[in-house]
UniProtKB/TrEMBL annotation:
InterPro entries: ATPase_BadF, ATPase_NBD, Euk-type_GlcNAc_Kinase. It holds the Pfam family BcrAD_BadFG. It comes from Cohnella zeiphila. Coiled coil: none annotated. Residues 10-304 form the ATPase BadF/BadG/BcrA/BcrD type domain. Signal peptide: none annotated. This is ATPase. It comes from the Bacteria. SUPFAM superfamilies: Actin-like ATPase domain (SSF53067).
Amino acid sequence: MLHSSDPILIGIDGGGTLTRVLVSDSSGTALAYAEGGPASIHKDVNARRNVQEAIRQALAAAGRTQDSVIGLAAGIAGFDSEADREWVESLTDVPGLGGSRWHVNDAVVAHCGALMAKPGIIVIAGTGSIIAGIPEDGTFIRNYDFGHYAAAAARFLAYDAVYEALAGRMADEDAGLIQAMLSHWRVGSLAELSAMGRHGFGEEAQARNRTFGLFAPAVTAAADRGSPLAVRVCERAVEQIAVGVELLARSFATAEIEVALIGGVANSGYVSRRLHETLAAGRNARYRMTPPRYPPVVGAVLLAMTRLGLSTAAAAADRLGRSALALMKSS
């Protein structure tokens, strides 16, 4: 039986769309789960409030208080350099919150959850885009470290598709996609959409990026239907992701590398299928495509357990993963 004084851990997956918070006991049993708004100040000026409210909600759902916390690990989108540390650490600065805290890029906790921190590469393409890996020596590497960026985030697919349409690079088979585009922006013609574009599509940057990001599923679905425009857009994203994976592969000693796909774009039908096909012909390694084991928020708790020296053996990790998934499904 749990008591309010029993030690607990908090794991946070702070994304550009949602903040996910998981509370666990020290043996790896998930106790509560909560969601909030974006955790990145680049996506929402209220990021600090979003994260702190989600932490409080999760603690309340677990029936625990701030001083029961012995460790918190937070993976935060947009934490790309030491220059970001101040705003990132302020996200979890909840009065009275106890324990040690570790703040990392959200790709770190995604890797911990997807591959259980074993050597391998993750491809994240959803609200944001990053390719990250942990080679056999345990270091954390990213395509960013090479100065490489794969423009495969949802908003970039949508921007690319709109630009192609406004540039007149269309075929008859693109009619369905164009109609969906006009409906999404509530205009009657491409001429009207072009006029809107001349004024920044009528929104400030963050709102505009959200609007474009919401159109990405229409682009990937159109590629599945054979729209030439959508196929071109998705193929560019696939090629850039594949280059990023091959870049990281050179840091691995083994000939076979596990690769997990995370995010709505990466796991969309067309993009996922083409990534499997493209990486099957990889040049720097053999790639074994592996479904992510657990969500990033589970990876965040596992990271906290590891940093505290608690058991993360297979039994404990699986107990945490199963109990967390049950909570997430019921929330």
